[in-house]
Amino acid sequence: MVKEMIRFTIAGTIVTVVDFSIYYVLFHFFPYNVSKGASFVCAGIVGYLLYKYWTFKNIHPSHTEVLRYVFINSLALGINVFINHRVLSHWPGAVLMALITATSLTCLFTFIFFKCWVFKVSLIAEKRGIKSGENDKSPYPAT
């Protein structure tokens, strides 16, 4: 569990860097809300791949897991863009503050729902002592 938390933090940092970088480039050419939405979607794709395959070592295909991830990230997108917009409406020049505030609150929201709902199957398997990759013909060793 500790390894998963460390990996989640590292993956989250990578996702945040992707989000910040894309947003920073795009807001020079597009409205803030469009830029934030695009950067968030790109970061979400990177996040799913990192969380599923690296953080939780879950190699089993799951359509419901993908749907849950998309659902939570859709809600998170709305929360993220809304918070970004609200901060900028109160302090028009505070782009960095809006970005940090929106990202921090969205991170808290997604962590709770990823841990408790999206990747719940991985957590149940962990409690039973079954690691992802066990009892299948995967070439990846369980760690």
What coarse outline follows from CA principal-axis ratios?
A: elongated
Question: What's the β-strand tally?
Answer: 0
Helix content: over 70%
How would a textbook summarize the main sheet? none
Q: Helices, strands, pairings?
A:
Blueprint: H1 2-26, H2 32-55, H3 63-90, H4 95-118, H5 120-127
Q: What does this protein look like?
A:
- The protein has one domain (2-127).
- It is built from five helices and no strands.
- With 143 residues, it is mainly alpha-helical.
- The longest helix has 28 residues, at 63-90.
- It is 76% helix and 0% strand.
Short description:
By secondary structure, the chain is mainly α.
Task: List its traits.
single chain; mainly alpha; 5 helices; elongated; disordered C terminus
